[in-house]
Design a protein that fits this description.
The protein is of the alpha+beta class. It is built from four helices and twelve strands.
Amino acid sequence: MSLRRIVLLAFLSSVSGSHYYHNIAFHFSSEIKNWTEAKDACVQMQGSLFVPKQDERTQFVMGILEVSGSEAFWWTGVNDRSEESRYVDTFDREITYTNWFPGHPPDEYNKQPTKGEVSQDCVELRRVFSNRHTTGPTDVGQFYWNDVTCDTTDRHYICEIIICGFGPVPEVECSDEMNSAYGCAIDNHMLPTSTEIMYITSEETQMTCAMRCLSQIGCHSANYDSSELSCQLISVRAENLSELILAQQYVYLSTNLC
């Protein structure tokens, strides 16, 4: 095994595996694959290749990548395989945010995406770029987008997996600052709705109430009354925690269906 690979594995040991941001699990691979293999691996994990955006979740991922060192390159879901220069994700949704490498000064050498190279259809994240002004590749200090041929085999990858289900999700804090109650079990509050109640069942536990909603077509959330052992199945989900502050004897459950 080469010294470069040994150093790379040492860095990767600190970041490989799953890292949680609210109800999203980001899986950083320790193995290397080409782009299609990486995409399929994410699908097998019920997720998709990570697509950077101008948001906090991307800042979270970038913070983890900084620990990985400069030697690892990471596949993203961004690609222009179907139409040159039309960048989309793995669901063929067009990309509006970009963060291409701007090139080395003073002449923007190696600026991305590579002009005139139609075979480089998949986008990776990297922080080392070849530089004709130095004796070798240069670590530019942060991860940028770079287009490369999709059959390149020595790339790691990042999967984004939305966590579905009842109850608190790992790393989620249910607070008034959150824009959504999805994924959280809110003690002593109910979803204040009457017109959206599908029906009420009795002699339930919190778990059977949750399972009953999951098995009921159209049910998106439930109110469980532990004193009456009753379960209200509801066809809507709360959009914010303020909607949950009406009564005091219920536990609100969000299905967070995906």
